[in-house]
Design goal:
The chain has 405 residues and is α/β, with parallel strands linked by helices. It has helices at residues 22-42, 51-76, 85-96, 107-117, 135-144, 150-159, 165-170, 183-195, 198-208, 238-244, 262-270, 281-285, 292-300, 323-334, 350-357, 368-374, 394-402; strands spanning 101-105, 124-128, 213-217, 224-229, 234-236, 248-254, 273-276, 305-308, 340-344, 377-381. It folds into 2 domains: 10-79; 91-220 and 258-402, CofD-like domains (Rossmann fold, 3-Layer(aba) Sandwich). The strands form 2 sheets. Strands 3-2-1-7-8-9-10 form a 7-stranded parallel beta sheet, sandwiched between helices. A 3-stranded antiparallel beta sheet has the order 5-4-6, with helices on one face. Belongs to the gluconeogenesis factor family.
Length: 405
């Protein structure tokens, strides 16, 4: 009959059979004994030195080195290929010395910045807007009463150290009751069901996915976005706001969240650099810092604050907005002016402009004069990724951002 293995104290669990450690530890121990015997014969200053002393010293040292090396390889083989360990250790240690960067936003813009950041630092923190109510995320919010999970999943995927994880988390089911849902969204919902607490579920996801940094929600509470337009009309919900269109005067979280994660406040306090965007101005960037305690923390933070302006306007949200109007909207809602604004000013290929114009999207116009009057530093240049789309290049943007630290 099968018997349960007796539970040993942690220090003695290396004695379990099949560990492939004890044999190499024994070899190393014998090497140390031989080395000690040889060294003991060579130390006395008088008399002839036995001829075997040097041999024992050499053999003992060799056995000790081989034993320790084999023991290390045996233990490491349970987690990865031993040959890959030096490179992984070097990369991890180098990244751990990187700057502490806190980036706010959501959607594609923030995840692209995070992909660039993780190549330079393991100290990136993403604080993500949780007000999306469309697609798979919207359906899950209705069913489970959660904050939006879609943008959180994109950012978790961007900061993960596992090369195949992005494809797995982004997999969208095409049939059955799960049709339209992504695996990543369902993973966060499952973790929340198990933990019984959304904040705890996010921390579990951070640990499971082996991130180079951390991803946190702007608030673990289920909140919605309310927009007040210039004509006085008010609309609730991101999808409804985009569909309504028109000039937005102000956006709010409803209900106003009381809770933010302490990890987010600590990251802001310790930050070397604070980054807003890129991303949808009123439905990604601004909602990511609207919880009052986050705004208070940002107001007290000593790190420089950078706002990355979108390359293109967004229909129904920022039609006709200039770079300065983007910046003023951020400063108005935050109660603190970004000290630095990053703006793409290089030409965009005509074929790309024509494709975006069909969707009602146009390049964000830039005039340096109002920024100069406000005393705001502007970083201009080519920050677009080569290809058929008008989107930021992670490496170009991150190189400019880290140049500020």
């Amino acid at each position: 009959m099968w018997k349960r293995r007796p539970r040993l104290p942690p220090a003695f669990r290396w004695l379990y059979p099949g560990m492939r450690v004890k044999r190499y530890a024994l070899v190393a121990f014998l090497g140390v004994v031989l080395f000690g015997l040889g060294l003991g014969e060579l130390l006395p200053p008088l008399g002839l030195k036995p001829p075997w002393a040097a041999l024992a010293l050499l053999l003992g040292g060799l056995l000790a080195v081989l034993g320790v090396r084999s023991m290390n390889r045996s233990m490491l083989s349970a987690f990865t290929e031993p040959e890959e360990v030096p490179e992984k250790v070097y990369v991890r240690r180098r990244l751990e010395r990187g700057p502490k960067v806190v980036a706010f936003g959501g959607g594609t813009g923030l995840s692209r910045v995070l992909r660039g950041l993780k190549e330079h630092t393991a100290n990136a923190t993403a604080i993500v807007a949780v007000t999306d109510d469309g697609g798979s995320t919207g359906r899950l919010r209705l069913s489970f009463g959660l904050p939006a999970v879609g943008d959180l999943v994109d950012c978790l995927s961007a900061l993960s150290d596992h090369p195949g994880l992005s494809r797995l988390l982004a997999h969208r089911f095409a049939r059955g009751e799960m049709a339209g849902h992504t695996f990543g969204n369902l993973l966060l919902v499952t973790l929340n069901e198990v933990a019984g607490d959304f904040a705890e579920a996010i921390l579990e996801a951070n640990a499971i996915l082996n991130l180079r940094g951390q991803v946190l929600p702007a608030t673990p509470e289920a909140v919605h976005l309310r927009a007040r337009f210039q004509d006085g009309a008010e609309v609730v919900g991101e999808v409804a706001i985009r569909q309504r269109g028109g000039r937005i005067r102000e956006v709010f979280l409803e209900p106003e969240p009381r809770e933010v994660m302490p990890e987010a406040l600590e990251a802001i306090r310790r930050a070397d650099l604070l980054v807003l965007g890129p991303g949808s101005l009123y439905t990604s960037v601004i909602p990511s810092f609207l919880p009052p305690r986050l705004k208070e923390a940002l107001a007290r933070a000593k790190a420089p604050l950078v706002y990355v302006v979108n390359l293109m306007t967004e229909p129904g949200e920022t039609d006709g907005y200039t770079a300065y109007e983007h910046y003023k909207a951020v400063a108005f809602h935050l109660g603190r002016r970004p000290e630095i604004v990053l703006v793409h000013t290089a030409p965009i290929p005509e074929e790309v402009l024509e494709r975006y114009a069909e969707e009602g999207r146009h390049p964000v116009a830039f005039d340096p004069r109002p920024f100069a009057l406000d005393g705001v530093r502007v970083l201009t240049g080519d920050f677009r990724e080569e290809g058929p789309l008008a989107q930021h290049d992670p490496e170009k943007v991150v190189r400019a951002l880290l140049g500020l630290v």
